[in-house]
Amino acid sequence: MSLEQFKNRNVGSQTYKMIESEPTPESGMGRFGQVVKRTFKGELFVGLYVTMREMINALFIGEMHTVKYPLEKLPISPRYRAIHDMLRLLESGHYRCIGCGLCEKICISDCIKMDTRYDENQRKEVSEYTINFGRCIFCGYCAEVCPELAIVHGGRYENASEQRAGFSLFEDMLTPIDALKDQKEFDGFGAVTPNADNAIKKTPLAY
Amino acid sequence: MYEQVAFYLFSVLTIGLFLVTVLSKNLLYSMTSLAAGMVMISGFFFILGADFLGVVQLIVYVGAVMALYAFAMMFFDATRDIKEKNANSGWIFLLGGMIALMLVIVFSAPIFSENIQAIYPSIPGATNPQSVGLVLFTKYLVPFEVAAVMLLVAMIAGIILAGKKMDQSLTTEDDIVKTEVISQEDEK
Amino acid sequence: MEIVNVAVLPEVTSAGVIIKAIIILAIISAIAGFGTYLERKILAFMQRRLGPMHVGPYGLLQIAADGIKLFTKEDIVPQNANKLIFKVAPAITAATAFIALAAVPVFPDFTIPEWIPLLGGTFVPSIAADINIGVLFILGMMAAGLYGPLLAGMAQANKWGIIGSARTAIQFLSYEVVTGLSILAPIMLVGSLSLVEFNNYQQGGFSSWMMWQQPVAFVLFLIAGFAETNRTPFDLLEHEAEVVSGYATEYSGMRWGMFFIGEYANMITVSVLAAVIFMGGYNDLGFIAGWLIVVLKIAFVFFLMLWVRASWPHIRPDQLMWLCWKVLMPVAVVNVVITGFVMMV
């Protein structure tokens, strides 16, 4: 079923298949006849056949559905919003965050706290950056508002930890410097859409 | 030797269990001991070599007491004691005395048992069910058939008594009307 | 009719009977425990899952883990329950299940080899107590086993328990009739109630199996057997979706485990009965040895129970009663009458 069909709320216009059901028998003989018919029609054996087919498929053709979770993991969508990642610039390895504070401002659960100062080169430096994951609702606004795509949602969805502070420091979320070559560009929530060039329109100044 | 041990074991257990049946005020105790006592009686048949009768005793009384349980479940709260009302203690004395008399007769029977002879001695070589069948279908054919007819009559009477309103729904008439309306709408 | 001369067989000593009893107790209770593993595995495969995997290779030691859990779990007796009956009920289920197995021939006769010290040369009979009326004894014992759920449900002062035991009563009272009547026709053909005689009747290989002569009785017996062992199309007593856990609602720990062992031992008993009465017993089939073929048959019937559980929905109590009294019992009676006519003519 495609998405359009699924979202069609005009009841009656769908191409539903009606299942033929015989009327409930009224008399005793009718009911007996129904039992006889159902017994010899083989419906019960179709049921047996289906389960046996599934068992053979599962055992010998490998259509087992189980994912042994801690050992195997299913791939998640890039749009999934899990624990945040702080990305680095690929060229210099410096973190991307420019300390603008937009994420702190937009955070609706008020869980991002950041502090900045000017370093010796008069550049803005993030001196402190924490996210309180006890409050975060993973709405994704911070990733969407970030002008540099510095804060994004990563794929770490296993949130159990021994301490509350487990994930929340800037250094914890920042891509490790030696794993920089493995850093993937984020294409999830807040990222530039793939067809952004076509979708862009002229600004009013061009007219 | 084994047979004597088994006999006395079964005797004590049977009498004890039936005493519990009579004396206990708890529904579950008395009925469970009744069922257990019936099973113990079947043990006597096994000791006597009458396997068939023993098993029949087992099957018949297990089922019968199960039906009794079903009624008890409907009428009483099984976890509470039952308040008994003994209005007619004269009857109890009479029946108790008769049972005591019967016990005396039963216990004194072995004294005369040498004079007792079976009218229809079991046929040598015939297995248990066979000898039961031979006696049932020759000498006792008429009582057997009469009993069968009586049970049939009781069964048919029970079906007729219970079956008058069997096909009617237990829901109120309003509900029936509603469901009929709904089903008619479905048909349209 | 062929009557096997009993005198040909070696003498059955009490040592042999005791060995047989120990074999039955040890093997069947182990298999009954293993049956839970098999059930979980097969149900899982039929639903494309893996089932127990973590305890031992392929989860084989799951039964040990379950056993440890059941033994060490707290044994709770509810406050308002009838405590004596509550404690006795699981023992009834487990004990009757094994007593019934005393009259079941599981393996053919064998003699312990002479080189084994102490017991060498002891003749172990195929059946612990060959009491001539094996079939009736097993049916009676399995019927008595239903007192376990009945008493458990009534003693525990729980409404789900009461419903469970009421369902036990109706299921027992109705399906006992069908079991007896369905097995009556084969009994008439064989002319004996002994399971050994049933086995000897079907010595002529595959074509002499009782299920070809009495297909209706075979199907009826299977249906009634499912009902007597509370397997899925008729598992009214403890159906979770309706009555929480029925008669076993208040049970925990080993008392609950005894119900479980009794249920699986009963499943094995019904499987053995079906294999011996209808499917040729432990006679050799072609080149396959008798003990192997009977194990295969028992395993198949056991598997059928699990297969059906995975495939079919269960039915309502009123449908159960309707099916029993208005369909199965008349069919069974007609089957008995027709068998009688054929035998007379």
Which terms summarize this structure?
heterotrimer, B: 188 residues, mainly alpha, Four Helix Bundle (Hemerythrin (Met), subunit A), 3 domains, 7 helices, 0% strand, globular, C: 345 residues, two-stranded antiparallel ribbon, 2 strands
Describe the protein:
The complex is a heterotrimer of chains A (207), B (188) and C (345). With 207 residues, chain A is of the alpha+beta class. Chain A has helices at 3-7, 28-41, 43-61, 102-106, 141-145, 170-173, 196-199, and strands spanning 84-86, 112-118, 124-131, 151-153. Chain A folds into two domains: 24-65; 84-193, Alpha-Beta Plaits (2-Layer Sandwich), CATH 3.30.70. Chain A is 27% helix and 10% strand. In chain A, the strands form two sheets. Chain A has a two-stranded antiparallel ribbon with strand order 1-4. In chain A, strands 2-3 form a two-stranded antiparallel ribbon. Chain B has 188 residues and is mostly helical. Chain B folds into three domains: 1-82, Four Helix Bundle (Hemerythrin (Met), subunit A), CATH 1.20.120.1200; 90-125; 140-188. Chain B has seven helices and no strands. Chain B has helices spanning 2-23, 27-47, 51-75, 89-112, 128-137, 141-163, 173-187. Chain B is globular and about 60 Å long. With 345 residues, chain C is an all-alpha fold. Chain C has one domain. Chain C is 64% helix and 1% strand. A two-stranded antiparallel sheet of chain C has the order 1-2. Chain C starts with 13 loop residues before the first helix and ends with a helix. Classes of the chains: A alpha+beta (207), B mainly alpha (188), C mainly alpha (345). Chains in contact: A-C, B-C. Chains A and C meet through α2 and α3 of A and α1, α12 and α13 of C.
